[in-house]
Amino acid sequence: xxxxxxxxxxxxxxxxxxxxxxxxxxxxxxxxxxxxxxxxxxxxxxxxxxxxxxxxxxxxxxxxxxxxxxxxxxxxxxxxxxxxxxxxxxxxxxxxxxxxxxxxxxxxxxxxxxxxxxxxxxxxxxxxxxxxxxxxxxxxxxxxxxxxxxxxxxxxxxxxxxxxxxxxxxxxxxxxxxxxxxxxxxxxxxxxxxxxxxxxxxxxxxxxxxxxxxxxxxxxxxxxxxxxxxxxxxxxxxxxxxxxxxxxxxxxxxxxxxxxxxxxxxxxxxxxxxxxxxxxxxxxxxxxxxxxxxxxxxxxxxxxxxxxxxxxxxxxxxxxxxxxxxxxxxxxxxxxxxxxxxxxxxxxxxxxxxxxxxxxxxxxxxxxxxxxxxxxxxxxxxxxxxxxxxxxxxxxxxxxxxxxxxxxxxxxxxxxxxxxxxxxxxxxxxxxxxxxxxxxxxxxxxxxxxxxxxxxxxxxxxxxxxxxxxxxxxxxxxxxxxxxxxxxxxxxxxxxxxxxxxxxxxxxxxxxxxxxxxxxxxxxxxxxxxxxxxxxxxxxxxxxxxxxxxxxxxxxxxxxxxxxxxxxxxxxxxxxxxxxxxxxxxxxxxxxxxxxxxxxxxxxxxxxxxxxxxxxxxxxxxxxxxxxxxxxxxxxxxxxxxxxxxxxxxxxxxxxxxxxxxxxxxxxxxxxx
Length: 673
Description:
By secondary structure, the chain is an alpha+beta fold. It has 26 helices and 20 strands. The protein folds into four domains: 162 residues, Glutaredoxin (3-Layer(aba) Sandwich); 304 residues, Alpha/alpha barrel (Glycosyltransferase), CATH 1.50.10; 74 residues, no CATH class; 82 residues, 3-Layer(aba) Sandwich (Glutaredoxin). The strands form six sheets. Strands 1-3-2-4-5 form a five-stranded mixed β-sheet, sandwiched between helices. Strand 15 and strand 16 form a beta hairpin. The protein is globular, with a radius of gyration of 26 Å.
């Protein structure tokens, strides 16, 4: 066993028995590199990564390759999910030198941490024009010993390029037509046959759909619902056990990369919930409920949080847990076999390496016509068959579980539970959201600062911008759903830390890490990956809370983050959609609603029900139950107001002017309309 045996990350523990003398990221590795005058060989991946497993089996488990690594390098293994800051810095270096990126990532560094070579997956030997890992290692070792001057020069040059990357300068006001122009760009890249934007591989466009759901144009809703329908019908969605895979390798959502990530399922629960609120389409409600069942069953921690991911592989084969042979259905389903095969596209040839990935090959109406059955009977028989197949696959060897708990991803899941509870009016989802928020506050929030990752009773790694902002946005979703002031107060505290610890006063925007870290540069995240960018989430959080607090400084910081990226938002909206969401919040007409009354009073509940049913995504909401409520000192728009005549009372304010207070749900509904 090497040093990784003492780590908590499941990905690092997967490599604890490699013959490679791995170090975790930290001072010990860099000290060893300095004392031995060796370069660092940095390898970055994550536990659910198929090609990370491939490179591990081919190279890191090979005694000869491991001996070569140990002789010439200090070898460092990093879990990109545990250290997204490390990943961001060196992925930028790889992209700058190769024009591409991905995982596993391999980077050679000087003992000072400066990169001079980088790439992604390498086969052990030369293959199809790709250099083999043995040859790469030998070449790097030779360059270090015989051409040190060239290596140092390359390292200094590349590090200088990374340090020079800043947000572009931006002047003037935001373009008022920005959202309309971004919508036109999205419409131009929309896949009218399969949904989504662009071609294969195709990732769920999380923040793009969030932006579209905020827009009033029919075209925005049309693109959203078509994409949601197609994803739900494809192999991307597990038709038996629910939950979404990370992405589809094709353009039609059929063949997934089978790993299931918490962040994808959290964001898609929110998107389907909001789409259900707009359309009341039963499919979307079912997807929300079933996906939450999957997340709780497969990723729920008994402590209150949620684990990170399920692997793509079982028994060393990608997708083996999920796919079917036609003869397996013959053995299990009896008279329902042909109906199920037709509906889910199961054939003897299969659609994935001789097996079939279940997907909705034809709608219920078509299956009913084909088999001359009532639609209700088709639905009943399909549901019965799904239960049989789900139970039949249960004994299979399961994909591996990454059971670390990440603050940022749990913030997304917190928001998803809150959104689902609010839209579907499900108290059990809201109770689970409260449990998650309390767990996160207890485990991650220590002495006013967040930690990034938790496992085996230990919370570690200094919290990053993504942790503060995504936890903060999750808290705001929970507050919007429950109007319980403790969640708003905690979100305000997190926002204050975002401004104090992450804001760049010189170039604008927000750094991904706090000052004083060990990285060669402080990364600044503006491009949406599968999760919202740190700067996009920060702009959203500050834009939202500035409405509650009338804090013009926070509003100005959000605007200053968006302003230099206007052209990028306009031309590449799928990559900067979280910033577009922030712009929607900043441009929305200012509106505040406050309700005063005892929560258990039926009249208060009637007023709150109107508020919940009205949507109001950009409205600042407040509920005050007690005279000494801490919110009274934090929210200017509720100061000096209270119940009228001892009755539960609502105030609707717009543009700094409040209408007459009302005490009935009918009058509140009229004012909100």
